[in-house]
Amino acid sequence: MQVPLEISTRWIDLAPPLEAELRKRAGRLERHSDRITSCRIAVERPTGNHHQEGGPYRVRVDITVPGSELVADKSGEELYAAIRDAFDAAERQVETWADRRRGEVKAGITGWWQINGRSHVSPEEALRLDTFYIENWSFSLDLYILVKTLKTVLLRQGAY
Fold first, then answer.
1. Structural domain contains residue 149
2. Chain segment 4-63, per-residue pLDDT in tens
3. For the whole model, what pTM was predicted?
4. Which long-range contacts (CB under 8 A, 24 or more apart) does 136-145 make?
5. Can you give the residue range of the structural domain that contains 128?
6. How many domains is the chain built from?
7. Does any domain span residue 160?
8. What is the enclosing helix (H) or strand (E) of 142?
């Protein structure tokens, strides 16, 4: 994350075990995408009638990713159950966002793996390089590929 994790509480103490659990769960979000810009967590225990629908604990996870804000807001009778449900929902949203982002990238002029070894690259390495291209696509990256492709063609390098 580019911005440090923010944790806020309302009508509840942020005990060290609770903070550790929240930090652990927030860290696990980055397994699904390394493009998370920031994460804010709000934990609250409403006052008054705690038997209202949804239970007495509420956990909200706000995640900022490029071009979008993802929000998971869950309530539960038990604090750690509300945390689990909120972060499970947040993980699903991050996965969906990352999958959709990968699908939105149009095929380039040539493959990233083709300019980074071509015939000398194993299928696993080619897949890793193409995944890198999909996750880091930009106009400048396509421009770089074009320049490197032209250089390779004009100097007659790399292809058999």
1. yes
2. 999 999 999 899 999 999 999 999 999 988 889 999 999 999 776 545 544 689 999 999
3. 0.65
4. 137/105, 137/108, 141/112, 142/108, 142/109, 145/108, 145/109, 145/110, 145/112, 145/115
5. 113-155
6. 2
7. no
8. helix 139-155
